[in-house]
Write a structure and sequence with these properties.
Helix content: 40-55%
Shape: globular
Distance between the termini: 100 Å
Number of strands: 33
Largest sheet: 7 strands, mixed
Strand order of the largest sheet: 1-4-5-6-7-8-9
Length: 995
């Protein structure tokens, strides 16, 4: 059939036809809209009279004059007080009479009354909705729930020269937010701009400040690896998912009831949160898979940092807690959210309480609660429990039998901790081991009744692998290989992939997060260190190298030079961003470095007379620097002199301060949209680099870019860290579990222990009798001869043996969570090694003291890169870990040689001639008696700014006249001239003061 119509009306008509079809579920609207009340009044009154006749009669009897008008006023008053979303979900009261404005689909099909009530809803679609008495303007399409307009659409057709951008401008400039129907949370809950290929939406009209978000699937479809936009649709429009799926009648009602969330923020106006498409999609796909396959499956969700994972987790937890199977039984007894983020606790509480008052409060087992509280919550079947992983080892043996009880475990930021002993204890606490016990009995060739499930060895073995009653839902932006194998979906080729993907690439292309690598600047720190002692002792190479680097990093001159850059970068760049609200974070290498940067930044700010920069510092515990102890609350002070508690730092930084200097704290899970600039003075690798730099990627009105200044890491290192997580991350194949036997074989090669030692130990450890007061002593006595034989090895052999023991402990703990091997002898050896490690004495480490033995000879900061770090559009692939070869213990090298290696690594374009030039100038200036007199009687600032520059200029010119070749570079490069002058100023001042 030929296509004759390609105008906007046809686009409207096609959408309307889909919504009015049996699959769409809507009816054609025929009522007349009343702009004054913001309602299709007849439809609303008809719904109330049909579904709540007794209540209507009571209302009419108490309001005999203008009954309908008074009902509409009462409804509007409720919306003014509580918001439309609350009224739709919970109804409202008038003089003791309760009214429901709509009915939602029940979770259980057993509730026939609720199902019948749901069928009474009248859900209509209207085209060309004339919404105002003051103008003849109309909105292209509106969805109306029992007479209440809830979702509105501006539709544009590319074939007539209009796109989604025109629709957005209409919402921003042609629709008055003061209209009843456009007031926040009074009527329309979502405003959509739609054309053939894109969808954008907002929940609040605010004129030119209206903020639209994309509501697209992604270029390869929802949950798949790709970029922005929508894929082609062989059956219709690329955006047909909007009206065929998202706003299908039942789906639309589900979104109102279980997704839209009113987010209340301290000191800010509330926001309506409508799920992004990837959030809606992942929750529904998870629910569909669980409904089809039941408990016992694992799911890995790779969603970019800053993509709204907290809300996705909250929606997932809520929906899983209320999910029923085909027999109308709850699928999960409890949903357990494992997280270290307190912000998620509050978010879960707020989100779920907004959805459903009947589900019960979220049980948060926070810092002020104990493992006993967790035990009580699990045993009581609390619907949603939020806890840390570390509380499970204390209670895993005391949880009531899990037989017949299923658990959903949601892991926030799944990472390596999921392969440790705490994760094993979580499984031990919650696993239904009935199937594993049956499998073990078959392997042992015994009847199931003959196996004692309370036997400690049996109990440990049957908790390994996956269990039919445990479902894991792991959310992360940066999955490692171990995470992929543990939680990922295995494909036919043996590779492991995420269940659902919202990639960093898609989030950046959609503008939902910012690309933190677009404005990146790296500096190379060029320095040379010399020793100040005559002898050249042999010292451990790697420890000495670390100490020498630490000497440079904490050297006052290094700190002072970088502190100037930090402050001046804030003044020249950061404070002008985001409408003057831009903030900066400084990432330091240690708590001591954070304290020193804090003091030096404050000193420089005061020295320069700047009075509009507030600096905070964040670190845990106490730091001792030169005999004085510092804590975060001690250093952080408000303008009124009051101290800021650790729990208040985040809020104070947002409201009143500009620069936050951190050591470890706030590098993950910190959400501050006003953060624009990051100064990095710490080595960042892999996942840590991505997590740290992603603190900058949050968007907010007025934020268009970010800036990173990195003193430590190179462009190539950052690119290498980000590339695996830019798109989908996958694992090529499973880990070879048989590598454990290789490690076991290597351990036995040292002849430190035998089968008899392992058996003797396990006879004590797995003894079924009650532990007496000598049992632990007997266990130690079995291990002591083994430790004695270990002590007879050479230092190198001891090092290799300990390394292999740690490898066995780590890899067995991981592999036993992925597969169930039922290798009794290997498990016994694993337990034996775990306890043996605790008894093996570490090799004595001689204290290494280089204090006073090093000096910084020269120092220079040099810009090495400025621009965008580009990432390739390719899948990030991990290969399974393999057994490591033998490594060597730390060797000793002469101190001179170590220093030379450090200097070679950090040497910049600073020649020997430069060194000679500095030495000559210093010698000349130190002989200047007039300068020495001024140094002894002058303030350091006056000396550096007023006295020294003249003396330095004279010395430099005289030296140039005597040796033009040697000193020509000094006058050819103003930056070099200033750097040398500034360096000599502080050194000469100090030496003249003490000389």
């Amino acid at each position: 059939m030929p296509i004759n119509e390609t105008n906007e009306k046809r686009f409207e008509s096609d959408i309307e036809s889909a919504l009015l079809s049996p699959a769409g579920g809507y009816v054609k609207g025929e009522d007349i809209y009343d702009p004054k009340s913001g309602l299709f009044v007849d439809t609303l009154i008809d719904f109330i009279q049909r579904t709540q006749p007794k209540e209507w009669v009571r209302f009419a009897n108490t309001n005999k004059v203008n009954t309908i008008e008074k009902f509409c006023n009462s409804f509007n008053n409720a919306c003014d007080m509580y918001g439309l979303l609350h009224v739709l979900r919970h109804g409202f009261k008038h003089r003791g009479i309760s009214f429901r404005i709509c009915y939602f689909k029940p979770e259980s099909t057993l509730n026939q009354t609720a199902a019948a009530q749901y069928a009474h809803n009248r859900i209509a679609v209207y085209r060309q909705w004339y919404y105002s008495t003051d103008s003849k303007k109309s909105v292209d399409m509106v969805l109306v729930l029992n007479g209440i307009p809830v979702f509105a659409f501006e539709l544009k057709n590319q074939y007539t020269g209009q796109t989604v951008d025109k629709a957005k401008r209409q919402w921003m400039y042609d629709r008055d937010p003061r209209e009843v129907c456009f007031q926040f949370n009074k009527r329309i809950l979502g405003y959509f701009a739609v054309d053939h290929t894109e969808v954008w939406m907002t929940t609040q009209l605010a004129g030119k400040n209206t903020y639209f978000l994309p509501f697209n699937q992604g270029s390869n479809g929802a949950g798949k690896d790709g970029g922005k936009g929508n894929p082609t649709n062989p059956d219709g429009y690329p955006t047909a998912y909007l009206w065929e799926q998202v706003f299908q009648k039942d789906s639309m009602m589900d979104i109102i009831q279980k997704f839209i969330h009113l987010q209340k923020q301290d000191g800010k106006k509330p926001r309506l949160i409508f799920p992004r498409y990837h959030q809606l999609d992942v929750v529904r796909k998870l629910l569909a898979d669980v409904s089809q396959n039941g408990a016992g499956q694992n799911y890995l969700i790779q969603h970019s940092a800053g993509s709204g994972k907290s809300n996705s987790i909250a929606w997932t937890a809520y929906r899983l807690a209320s999910l029923h199977d085909s027999d109308n039984n709850a699928v999960f007894s409890s949903v357990i959210v494992v997280t270290d983020r307190t912000v998620l606790d509050a978010q879960l509480q707020d989100t779920i309480s907004g959805f459903d008052h009947t589900l019960g409060a979220v049980e948060t087992i926070g810092e002020k609660k104990t493992s006993r509280d967790l035990l009580n919550a699990v045993n009581a079947g609390a619907r949603i429990i939020v806890t840390t992983l570390q509380k499970f080892p204390v209670i895993y043996q005391e949880v009531d039998k899990a037989n017949g009880r299923n658990y959903a475990v949601i892991v926030d930021e799944a990472h390596s901790s999921q392969t440790g002993t705490s994760a094993l204890k979580l499984k031990a606490a919650l696993a239904d081991t009935e199937d594993a016990l049956r499998e073990y009995a078959e392997i042992e060739g015994k009847a199931e009744e003959a196996i004692d499930p309370e036997d400690k060895l049996v109990r440990e073995l049957i908790t390994h692998g996956r269990h039919k009653n445990l479902s894991f839902f792991a959310f992360t932006a940066t999955p490692k290989g171990t995470t992929l194998e543990m939680f990922g979906t295995e494909h036919e080729d043996g590779s492991f992939h995420p269940f659902h993907i919202y990639s960093m690439r898609q989030a950046i292309e959609e503008g939902f997060i910012l690309d933190v690598l677009q404005n990146y600047m790296t500096y190379d720190t060029c320095f040379k260190i010399a020793k100040t002692i005559e002898d050249n002792p042999d010292v451990p190479a790697s420890r000495a190298a670390k100490l020498i680097r630490k000497f440079e990093q904490l050297h006052p001159y290094n700190i002072s030079q970088k502190a100037k850059i930090i402050v001046e970068t804030y003044l020249s760049t950061t404070r002008h961003k985001i409408g003057g609200k831009g903030k900066m974070m400084v990432i330091t290498s240690s708590r001591l470095a954070a304290v020193r940067y804090y003091h030096e930044c404050k000193r420089y700010i005061e020295e320069q007379g700047y009075d509009d920069i507030g600096v905070l510092v964040a670190f845990s515990g106490a730091v001792n620097d030169d005999g004085e102890e510092y804590t975060e609350p001690k250093l952080n002070v408000r303008a009124d002199g009051s101290h800021i508690g650790e729990s208040q730092t985040k809020a104070e930084f947002h409201e009143n301060f500009h620069v936050l200097i951190v050591a470890e704290k706030y590098q993950t899970g910190f959400d501050e949209p006003l953060l624009h600039t990051m100064i990095v003075d710490k080595k960042l690798r892999g996942v840590k680099a991505v997590q740290t730099l992603s603190r900058l990627n949050r968007t907010c009105p007025g934020k268009t870019d970010t800036f990173v200044l990195d003193f430590i890491n190179t462009q190539e290192e950052i690119q290498e860290a980000f590339q695996p997580f830019y798109q989908e991350t996958m694992l090529e194949r499973e880990v070879n579990a048989d590598l454990l036997y290789q490690v076991q074989h290597e351990l036995r090669g040292y002849a430190i222990y035998s089968d008899n030692d392992v058996s003797a130990f396990c006879d004590e450890y797995f003894n079924t009798d009650k532990q007496d007061d000598r049992a632990m002593g007997r266990m130690t006595s079995v291990l002591k001869p083994v430790a004695d034989r270990y002590n007879g090895l050479s230092a190198d052999e001891r090092y290799q043996f300990r390394r292999l023991c740690r490898s066995m402990k780590k890899w067995y703990g991981y592999i036993s969570q992925v597969v169930r091997m039922f290798d009794v002898e290997l498990h016994k050896e694993y337990v034996f090694i775990c306890y043996l490690l605790g008894l093996l004495p570490p090799d004595e480490v001689q204290p290494l003291d280089l204090d006073g033995k090093l000096k910084l000879e020269y120092y220079k900061l040099q810009k090495t890169f400025e621009g965008a770090i580009e990432l390739k559009e390719e899948t990030g692939a991990f290969t399974p870990a393999t057994a490591k070869g033998e490594t060597k213990p730390e060797e000793k090298e002469p101190l001179d040689e170590i220093i030379e290696k450090i200097n070679e690594q950090y040497k910049g374009v600073f020649t020997d001639a430069d060194r000679v030039m500095v030495d000559v100038l210093k010698t000349v200036l130190m002989r200047d008696e007039h300068l020495k007199k001024n140094a002894k009687t002058s303030d350091p600032r006056i000396f550096a700014e007023s006295i020294f520059p003249k003396a330095f200029g004279t010395a430099a010119q005289n030296s140039y006249m005597q040796s033009q070749d040697a000193f020509s570079s000094l006058f050819a490069d103003q930056a070099k001239y200033n750097a040398i002058m500034n360096a000599l100023s502080s050194i000469i001042y100090r030496e003249m003061q003490t000389g």
